[in-house]
Design goal:
mainly alpha; ABC transporter transmembrane region fold; 82% helix
Length: 334
């Protein structure tokens, strides 16, 4: 359970950052090997998550059709025009029906995709966790008595019951959403560039700042998260020690002392978790402010482009809808 991260052999100079990267690579390799029996399910989950990208791109399309082609007199978007016969392509009633039908279809497909993704994700997570916990339990039983005497049984219990769940977050809730978010981001930027490259450039201008901010916060979040885990394990150790030797505790009247020790350790853990929540909240605030600044800039320039005839009102609404979705993938990536 306690693997060595990096390589500390004499004569091999490594910086702390390099050792951390090597440790992360080794960790991912171990987790990928652990998930090997469930690769077909993981691949299916990955393909399902990729379906969210085209659905996200199609979501604002009905609004553009309604504004530009039903209320206005602009032709249908290129992606829809070949599918609509020329005889009905200029009928506002038919175009409105197409827009409504497309809206309902996209919403239905999105709900089906999310439902299937949720069910398959729950199955893969539970199977991964069960297998991983069994492997950890088998490993714990093989460790020497000296190790258990030195570390205590509560540490092993905490790792099997609570730390093991990290395999779900790393493989299912991190890697797959990261790739899916990247595909969605690239698709949105491409479509926005086709509509108005200047607006796409404004949207991209804020992206590097979000990624850098995410990397800065990541180090601090990781440090506080590890500290919180250690304190939680330590708090559990106190409970297990006291309950395991309850007769002795009662015989010497140490209930108040043990309670004070438990409260002190719990308070330390609470403070660390509050700092962790504060960091997460600060990151979300910065992302929200950056998103609002980007949308404000796009709205300002976009309205001028509509007035100048460079952009239609429906295209501006489409870009604003993409902007509203754009920073969620960026937040996931960062």
């Amino acid at each position: 359970m306690h693997g060595r991260h990096g390589d500390d052999r004499p004569g091999l100079e490594t910086t702390p950052g390099r050792r951390r990267v090597i440790g992360d690579v080794v960790l991912f390799r171990r987790l990928l090997s652990q998930a090997r029996p469930y690769w077909p399910h993981v691949v299916a989950l990955f393909l399902l998550s990729l379906l969210s990208s085209p659905l996200s791109l199609l979501t604002p399309l009905p609004l553009k059709i309604a504004v530009d082609s039903v209320i206005g007199s602009h032709p249908l978007p290129h992606v829809i025009a070949p599918l609509v016969p020329e005889a009905i392509a200029h009928s506002p009633a038919v175009l409105l029906a197409i827009a409504v039908g497309l809206l309902v279809t996209v919403a239905l497909l999105r709900q089906l995709q999310e439902l299937t993704n949720t069910l398959l994700q729950a199955y893969v997570k539970e199977k991964l966790l069960q297998n991983f916990r069994a492997r950890l339990f088998r490993h714990v039983q093989r460790l020497s008595l000296a190790y258990h005497d030195a570390r205590g049984t509560s540490d092993s219990t905490y790792r099997i019951q609570y730390d093991a769940t990290a395999i779900q977050y790393v493989l299912i809730d991190s890697v797959i959403p990261f790739i899916s978010a990247t595909v969605t981001l690239v698709g949105m930027i491409y479509v926005m560039t086709r509509i108005d490259w200047q607006l796409a450039l404004i949207a991209l201008a804020i992206s590097p700042g979000l990624v850098v901010t995410g990397r800065i916060f990541r180090r601090r979040l990781r440090r506080h998260s590890r500290e919180a885990k250690k304190l939680e394990s330590s708090t559990m150790s106190i409970v297990q020690e006291v309950l395991g030797a309850l007769r002795v505790v009662k015989a010497f009247g140490q209930e108040a002392r043990e309670e004070e020790r438990f409260i002190r350790r719990s308070t330390e853990g609470m403070k660390v978790r509050l700092r962790l929540a504060s960091l997460e909240g600060s990151f979300n605030v910065l992302v929200g402010l950056a998103s609002a600044a980007g949308m404000a800039a796009v709205l300002l320039i976009g309205v001028r482009h509509v007035g100048a005839g460079v952009l239609t009102l429906g295209e501006l609404l489409m870009v604003m809808a993409y902007m509203n979705q754009l920073y969620e993938p960026l937040k996931t990536i960062s």
